């Protein structure tokens, strides 16, 4: 069996004030009416109709509403993606020792869904044919220093057309390296999507994160006995103690047999208000607007409002976001600095707005 | 009798979005808990306990709530201050032929109320002693080009200490003249407060705005008969046809016997968000904030919010106002340009937010 495992554990401060502790980014309808999570489930349906969502315990109900047919695993605590994917793999091998996981972040945007589906099919197929971990490498459209990159190696025609070895992973590069990567053509963005047999993933965890593997084994033993209550108890006991590390850093970078399928399908990590702005059309005057908004004598502004109206006069290059009970104003090219606002609100005793 | 006539007909777009069509500036509590109108009534109480408010028909209930003891006259249509003050004078002479009016805008701020009271007392007294129109000239604190000014003439000790002839009125000067006025010391801001016998004001209207005077006479005849219903009918019939002109431009500039009492009492016309900011204390980091707000890495910002929170990161010199269902962002030194936002909203079919 194939199973799409959707990692929906993000805390989502990067799109504050639209994203909140109680409503992370995957539950936002960014530039449309469908939430990012619902869109993620929908576009995987043709390739991997079995869906498992791993999310925070207090997000289970919201996730169920967005993905009625999915199996939902609750994390007793946020322990990052290596633990979350390990938990999913543990559940899947108990159902099918040959299960193949396709792991996807819950909060990405895809512009060309047909192209996305074809690339995902190739990646699943590679993981089914060979003893490999397949990933998707995204053709870069800018010298992005905020993403991890991967360097392509030789073609792996044995695993299907368009499959390559990964020579190495590159953590967030500096600007010079990122520019060279774009020019060189052998480097791709790591989109955080992985395809691997569940049993192979657990073996990698055993090798690289043995304490995590040992904890997961306790859960797996209960599942193997068909004892759901014991499995839940083991999860509650074990999971909060697992090391918090990403699947990229904790497993992929040191794993053997990693291959990549290059793809280009209008992908966005929706990682900042500037990224959201790129998903929306310019209003013809050099501004991007969502919701009732007017801009007088200004350009390069990004204005979002989920209610009411926002009016800008004589300002340029600003991101102005009104969502719920909060308003955020910062330069659009400092959209990464939402974190600073979140920290300041916490320091000011205003964390009720987070 | 003395009567404080409070002109509360302003439409108040300059403080949008806090001020709205349905809630003009005089009904805002700027920098406090008391509305500007309530504060105006309160600080006049010791000098002129009789209060008459002239306001728009649809603001009568709101005005009554702010000033329970006042007589309230409803304008069937907005016809500016010459007509409004003429209407008040017509009502007052019917009650007392010797009535003396002190006319005050409803939406100003006074920092030093004791000093204000002393100056108002002098101005009332001058109008009671002589056949003059007294005004208050405010000691300028900056070369303001947005106000009208007046030039002091010789002392009028016959009318009391501190009373001077007004040599002339100067409409909004250019920057060079305004700077010269501040340096010269003979020019004062015209604060829009006037003190005159009601009968004398009606005589000036007769001379300078005879059609207005004729219209008001119809109302006055009904009032002289004690026929309130006929007076109301005459007001409804006559008032909308009166010429719309300010008392300054329509009467004062050409009137004879105008005197001024110089004063300095922390006066503000509260005419823009920048003016509001001057009434509030700096937060110690070069920003002015009202309501829940944080500013990270920025200075010279003015942030007002009537609910929720506003967060600024990496921006300086902005006015950011959240009030009701609207948010306004503009440079603090372009605070006069709120009008542009109001016009743009109207043009965009969003006048429901005004």
Short structural description:
The structure is a homodimer of 354-residue chains. Chain A has helices spanning 36-44, 60-66, 80-95, 113-129, 175-184, 198-208, 210-224, 228-238, 247-250, 273-278, 338-347; strands at 2-8, 51-56, 71-75, 100-105, 109-110, 133-138, 149-155, 164-170, 187-197, 258-263, 267-268, 288-296, 302-313, 318-323, 326-331.
Descriptive report:
Two copies of one chain form a homodimer. Chain A has helices at residues 36-44, 60-66, 80-95, 113-129, 175-184, 198-208, 210-224, 228-238, 247-250, 273-278, 338-347; strands at 2-8, 51-56, 71-75, 100-105, 109-110, 133-138, 149-155, 164-170, 187-197, 258-263, 267-268, 288-296, 302-313, 318-323, 326-331. Chain A is an alpha/beta fold and 354 residues long. Chain A has two domains: 2-268, Spore Coat Polysaccharide Biosynthesis Protein SpsA, Chain A; 273-353, no CATH class. A five-stranded mixed beta barrel of chain A has the order 6-9-7-8-10. Chain A has a four-stranded mixed sheet with strand order 12-13-14-15. The first copy, chain A, starts with a strand and ends in a 7-residue tail after the last helix. In chain A, 50% of the residues are buried. Chains A and B meet through β12, β13, β14, β15 and α11 of A and β12, β13, β14, β15 and α11 of B. β13 of chain A pairs parallel with β15 (326-331) of chain B, so a sheet runs across the interface.
């Amino acid at each position: 069996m194939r199973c799409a495992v959707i990692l929906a554990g993000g805390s989502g401060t990067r799109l504050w004030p639209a994203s909140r502790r109680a409503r992370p980014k995957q539950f936002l309808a960014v530039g449309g009416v469908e939430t990012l999570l619902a869109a993620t489930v929908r576009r995987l349906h043709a390739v991997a109709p079995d869906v498992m969502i791993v999310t925070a315990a207090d997000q289970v109900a919201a996730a169920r509403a967005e993905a009625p047919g999915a199996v939902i695993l609750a994390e007793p605590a946020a322990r990052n993606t290596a633990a979350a994917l390990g938990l999913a793999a543990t559940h899947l091998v108990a159902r099918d020792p040959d299960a193949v996981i396709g792991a996807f972040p819950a909060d990405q945007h895809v512009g060309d869904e047909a192209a996305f589906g074809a690339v995902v099919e190739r990646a699943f197929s590679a993981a089914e044919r060979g003893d490999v971990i397949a990933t998707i490498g995204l053709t870069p459209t800018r010298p992005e220093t905020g993403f991890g990159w991967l360097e392509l190696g030789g073609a792996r025609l044995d695993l299907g057309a368009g499959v390559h070895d990964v020579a190495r992973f590159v953590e967030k590069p500096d600007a010079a390296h990122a520019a060279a990567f774009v020019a060189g053509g052998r480097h791709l963005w790591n989109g955080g999507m992985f395809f691997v047999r569940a049993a192979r993933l657990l073996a990698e965890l055993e090798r690289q994160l043995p304490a995590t593997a040992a904890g997961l084994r306790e859960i797996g033993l209960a599942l193997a006995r068909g004892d759901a209550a014991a499995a839940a108890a083991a999860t509650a006991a074990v999971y909060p103690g697992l090391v918090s590390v990403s699947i990229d850093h904790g497993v992929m970078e040191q794993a053997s047999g990693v291959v990549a399928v290059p793809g280009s399908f209008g992908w966005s990590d929706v990682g900042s208000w500037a990224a959201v702005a790129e998903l929306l059309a310019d209003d013809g005057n050099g501004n991007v607007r969502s919701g009732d908004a007017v801009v007088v004598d200004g350009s390069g502004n990004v204005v979002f409002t989920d209610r009411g109206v926002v009016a800008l006069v004589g300002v340029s290059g600003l991101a102005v976001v009104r969502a719920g009970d909060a308003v955020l104003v910062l330069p659009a090219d400092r959209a990464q600095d939402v974190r600073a606002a979140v920290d300041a609100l916490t320091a000011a005793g205003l964390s009720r707005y987070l």
